[in-house]
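User: I'm curious what two different proteins look like when written out as structure tokens. Can you demonstrate?

Assistant: Sure. I'll show them one after the other, since each token string lines up with its own sequence. Here's the first protein:
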Amino acid sequence: MLKKQKTEKQKEIDLCKMRYAVGKIESDVYEEARAKMESELAKIDEELENYSENLSNLEKEVGDIIVSCSKLSDLWKES
């Protein structure tokens, strides 16, 4: 979902640039809109990075759990 939001925000920025390039919007409007959209894009990128870190931690945890589970039969034999 965040990747989709990022793609849509990038398209908005590109559209804004094109409208400015062909003179459909004034410089001050363009600068304000671009700054706002780029700020929103940066927030999306930050959220994506956080999810990426959490996912790698999750993958490590799953690996540790699998190793522990593979040793359960040994633990039961010792009991």
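Here's a second, unrelated protein for contrast:
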Amino acid sequence: MAAPLLDVAIYGAGGLGRMVRDILAQAGTYRPVAFLDSDPAMHRRVIDGLPVCGDLSAWDELARHGVGGAVVAIGDNTT
């Protein structure tokens, strides 16, 4: 029997965050459940099916709901 997936939030709701979401979903070890982002314009949006729950101050609420980890996805993913 496979171990349950760990629910994680992704900090960074831009292009790199979306790429990380895809990689995590395909890997099958982690289940992305939300984005966090420092840009208030991103808050309360839904990106690739995941809510942008706010900035880092939203972490405690996510943890109370069982989110067990976070992945930082900040940067420029262009080459």
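A detail about the second structure: Residues 44 and 57 are 14 Å apart (CA to CA).
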